Input
Amino acid sequence: MWPVRFCVLILILAASTLFAQHQYTQSEIEAGKQQYAANCTRCHGPDGDALANADIGHGKFRRATSDDELVRIIRNGVPETTMAAANNISEPNAATIVAYLRSMAATAAASAALPPGNATRGKTVFEGKGGCASCHRVGDNGSRVGPDLSQIGGARRMVEIQRSILEPDAEVVPANRTFRVITRDGATITGRLLNQDSFTIQLLDSKEQLRSFSKSNLREYAFVNNSPMPSYRDKLSSQELADVVSYLASLKGLIP
Ligand code: HEC
Ligand code: HEC
Output
């Protein structure tokens, strides 16, 4: 009984993906995002536009029109170029990457809504008016309270950077979550979790001090969902925002 029903289910699922070829679910897009980061970002960049003759982030391709053709390019590579066949990427995984490329194109418009940015001016806003360096480090400058942004441009899309600045709580990368402890005598300390074992917790607190706690002395300890970073929606003009986003997008971990 089981196997037959199971096969029918698979057939139905297979048929529905065939018919719904251009409608992707959020979980397919998420899976594709991870595959993209692991296999494609190093050449095509987080926005898909790092190669001058192959912008794959805006939904227009020189070598493909359909999603099937994209799957084939991803798996077979492009002859006579450095894009080799990706034997490790299965067809279903390649399809999730296509889902992600389509979603990238659909959301690229958000950063297009900003005026063109200037990275040099953005650096000035970052270090001055924005006060960003009081929490973030770039190269050898700034604080360790927030994540180090020296390589942010190699890892995140411009729309993601923009969203982090306008809505810090919307999506916090797991590694960047804030940890909070409450001691038995009622003191609350928040910071970045550096390490924990069965008995102790080590935090870098909001003053960049290393703090160690015995779990037995704590009333509570857990990650918190929101970000300590303020939203800059009303603090920066759209030009300043565009400049800061350009500056961060230019940071790829190379010595400036
Ligand atoms: C080693 C570098 C490299 C990697 C890794 C790589 N690509 Fe490419 N990709 C290229 C190059 C180079 C081209 C061809 C540019 C040209 O047309 O001359 C290309 C072309 C393409 C094209 C055709 C573009 C068009 O306009 O038709 C697509 C689509 C594409 N890549 C998607 C991907 C995806 C998705 C991944 C990850 C699974 C990936 N590539 C990984 C270097 C790479
Ligand atoms: C009070 C400290 C603080 C200030 C000030 C601050 N940030 Fe942040 N920022 C954080 C923390 C903590 C996180 C990690 C949690 C999160 O993603 O919101 C973060 C996250 C980010 C991220 C996402 C990083 C990633 O890996 O995805 C970006 C981009 C960013 N900040 C840019 C800025 C910019 C630009 C400014 C100034 C305009 C700024 N921040 C000001 C604390 C701060």
Observations:
- Residues 38 and 160 are 17 Å apart (CA to CA).
